[in-house]
Write a structure and sequence with these properties.
single chain, alpha/beta, Alpha-Beta Plaits, four-stranded parallel beta sheet, four-stranded antiparallel beta sheet, 12 helices, 44% helix, 16% strand, globular
């Protein structure tokens, strides 16, 4: 039985997200990260305020640190066929695979979130329409306001990214086409779209100086589904990812082709596991927990 280990992206942050690691041997990671970040991450995760935790520059480090610590606590001894992560989760996957150290990862995520916090816009989850329909709707809106498909999470669950004005138009058109639900996401930017190009350029200058190791257990690329193993592949992926769609359905199909039939989600709450099962119904999904999986 081949297994993969999966990590979620921004969106799982919530006050109390530290409950699974607080008081465990992995808690030292939170203290280490607080020193690097220059703020009390433990207090923010435990007490909030919630609106601060939702801000990109705080949310991304909180999710990365929590998920890496949970992986260390529950899964570091596992031997997966591959790692996979959704958006920010791909960075956590690369750290778990050994592409860079935890400390480097914290610094990397802090820079990533700083760059990503600049472009203004939003994201909209649309349930009940397929990607081709939404690409058609986006093309109708793009001349006035840039919008594009940003996340292909599962059949019938697509996320569109772009300018707020354009997203409002897409929302109306999607409802006219029969979308079951249209849900604005709790993010402050047009992630995984061409509007992130300035952020990618700034982040790229940082990544160019980062020491990145080859990895022995590959990580699935979010936007190509290729297996990443060399340091140069990983360096390019970290930058490209900011402006390219997350094709998570294709990621799951790539895992299935590798023979993966079991997915361990390392997260404070289940997110990517249920999405994966909607794409590959035979996958066995387990949520990592200090009490056993």
């Amino acid at each position: 039985m081949a297994k993969a280990i999966a990590f979620p992206g921004q969106g799982v942050q919530a006050v109390g997200m530290d409950r699974l690691i607080r008081g465990t041997s992995a808690w030292e990671r939170v203290a280490e990260a607080s020193d690097i970040l220059g703020f009390d991450l433990a207090r923010l995760m435990a007490e909030g305020p919630e609106d601060k935790l939702q801000q990109t520059q705080y949310a991304q480090p909180a999710v990365f640190v929590t998920c890496f610590a949970l992986w260390q606590l529950c899964c570091a001894g596992e031997e997966p066929a591959a790692y996979v992560g959704h958006s920010l989760g791909e960075v956590t996957a690369l750290a778990a695979a050994g592409a860079f150290t935890f400390a480097q990862g914290v610094e990397l995520v802090a820079k990533r979130s700083e760059c990503m916090a600049e472009p203004r816009g939003g994201m909209l989850a649309i349930l009940g329409l397929e990607v081709e329909e939404l690409e058609s709707l986006c093309s109708q809106v793009q001349e006035e306001h840039w919008v594009q498909v940003a996340n292909i999470n599962a059949p019938g669950q697509i996320v569109v990214s772009g300018k707020e004005e354009g997203l409002a138009v897409v929302a109306g058109l999607a409802k006219e086409r029969g979308a079951r639900r249209v849900v604005p996401l709790k993010v402050s930017g047009p992630f995984h779209s061409q509007l992130m190009a300035p952020a990618a350029e700034a982040f790229g200058r940082y990544v160019a100086q980062l020491r990145i190791q080859d990895v022995t257990v590959p990580v699935v690329s979010n936007h190509t589904s290729e297996l990443l193993s060399s340091g140069e592949q990983i360096r390019a992926e970290l930058v490209d990812q900011l402006t390219r769609p997350v094709r998570f359905t294709e990621n799951c199909q790539a895992l299935a082709k590798l023979g993966v039939d079991s997915l361990i989600e390392v997260s404070p709450s289940p997110v990517v596991g249920p999405l994966a099962r909607r794409t590959v119904s035979t996958l066995k999904i387990t949520l990592a927990s200090p009490g056993g999986m």
